[in-house]
Amino acid sequence: MSIVRLDISKVRNLEQISFSPSPQVNLITGVNGSGKTSILEGIHLLSFGRSFRSHKHKTYIQHEEEECVVFAQLKAKHNDFISMGLRRSRDGSIDVRIQGKKAQSVVELAERLPVQLINPDAFRLLEGSPKIRRQFIDWGTFHFDNGFINAWRGWQKALKQRNSLLRRGKISTSLLMAFDQELIRLGDKVNQYRQNYTNQLTPIFLSVLAELSDSIKVRLVFSQGWDATKSLTDAMASSCERDIDIGYTQIGPQRADLRVKTDAGDALDTLSRGQQKLVVSALKIAQGKMLIEMGSPLVFLVDDLPAELDSQHRQKLCALLEALNNQIFITSVEPDIMDYTWSDTTDVRHFEMKEGELSLSERRFAGELNE
Ligand SMILES: Nc1ncnc2c1ncn2[C@@H]1O[C@H](COP(=O)(O)OP(=O)(O)OP(=O)(O)O)[C@@H](O)[C@H]1O
Ligand SMILES: [Mg+2]
Predict the structure, then answer these.
(1) Among 296, 315, 350, which residue terminates a domain?
(2) Which of 296, 327, 350 is the C-terminal boundary of a domain?
(3) Sign of the CA dihedral 290, 293, 351, 76?
């Protein structure tokens, strides 16, 4: 799957841009504030129904405009073409269309257009709250295993109901434990899906990281959200009275986490900034690679490639991305920073952003000059 046509209208400074990306490598360059990140933001909107920069839709809809629109034509398996469109209005309403028909939920977008983002903010995967890492695991598990989404939705619903009962108070331990059976059944399922996914991801992550750097030695540690020596039933029974006292559910898959550790401790405290970026990039590439190997292509968005990386590591990252042979959008302020030699057989298109306009550049890259 790749985007063959992309139209973005009224997203930040992008008045109206339309272009035909390469199914392989797309380089987008332009000065600060020209709109490079906004293009990636538009693609991300179409996949997730939300931006990666802000949860407030009003910030990415162009000032003084009522709505923004992103439209893409995808070339899917068997060369079928799929059109996808998203319209987000200032009043908060969202209209998602696939092949002209209204979609039931934004999940349908993610299924058709899986997008993986590597950007300067990617550090948040290590330094942010566990919620960000759970989202990372859940995104991968969702694409990896068809059964996950239903278990996850059911479990979320049961958890919300339990927390609302606890907030209202006046609930006995026995009533709560009766209510918990369904929550535990679904919570166990969610946990199994996540564990299975993480077990599959780990060796792929380690081999991708080894290709990026031979000096970083880390391991992934998944924690399920309760004492690993206990069943969820026992752990919930033990915390039931305290849950009633404090008014919410303390343990369970909602507390799961995935930490990256070195021998000296948490990766966040022991690795340099550049090394952390390599670890996060390896996690994201591994996630993408796993999907690709399952026959589910995806689109990589790499915003501000040079940030934090030296020339050697930039080149290694580009080599890994190129080898995945999927569609990539890479942004950079300076074209010269792309000092990687793309293979002669890779379709590399270089687009330049200038004052909100996007044009295909005639500029040739080092690799292409060798032809
Ligand atoms: N809601 C909005 N309406 C109009 N313009 C906006 C809005 N939000 C941000 N902008 C402007 O859009 C422009 C594009 O920003 P963007 O972050 O995409 O640029 P960029 O090319 O990625 O820059 P950099 O190289 O600094 O990362 C900026 O000039 C910004 O001030
Ligand atoms: Mg930017």
Answers:
(1) 296
(2) 296
(3) negative
Distances (CA, A) of 61 to 34, 50, 56, 170: 16, 12, 9, 45
Contacts with 92 (C-beta within 8 Å, 6 or more apart), sequence order: 57
User: How much is the CA Rg of the chain, to the nearest whole Å?
Assistant: 22
Task: Please state the domain count of the chain.
Answer: 2
Q: Is the pLDDT of residue 366 over 70?
A: no
57 Cα–ligand 1 center, Å: 15
What is the tens place of the pLDDT at every residue in 60-85?
Answer: 999 999 999 999 999 987 889 999 99
Q: What is the DSSP string of 221-272?
A: EEE-SS-TTS-HHHHHHHHHHHHHHHTS--SSGGG-EEEEEETTEEHHHHS-
Q: What is the pTM of this model?
A: 0.93
Share of the chain above pLDDT 70, in %: 97
User: For residue 340, what pLDDT is reported?
Assistant: 85
User: Quick one: 250 and 307 in the same domain?
Assistant: no
Residue nearest to atom 18 of ligand 1 (CA): 35
- Mean pLDDT of all residues in 212-227: 97
> Do 58 and 141 lie in a common domain?
no
Read off the pLDDT of residues 171-203 as tens digits, 9 standing for 90 and up. Answer: 888 888 888 999 999 999 999 999 999 999 999
The Cα angle at residue 50 between residues 48 and 55, in degrees rounded to 5: 145
Cα–ligand 2 centroid distance for 242 (angstroms):
47
CA–centroid distance, 205 to ligand 2, in Å, is 27
Q: What is the domain extent for residue 292? A: 123-296
**In a shared domain, residues 155 and 86:** no
- Name the burial class of residue 327, with classes exposed (0-12), middle (13-18) and buried (19+) by CB atoms within 10 angstroms of its CB: buried
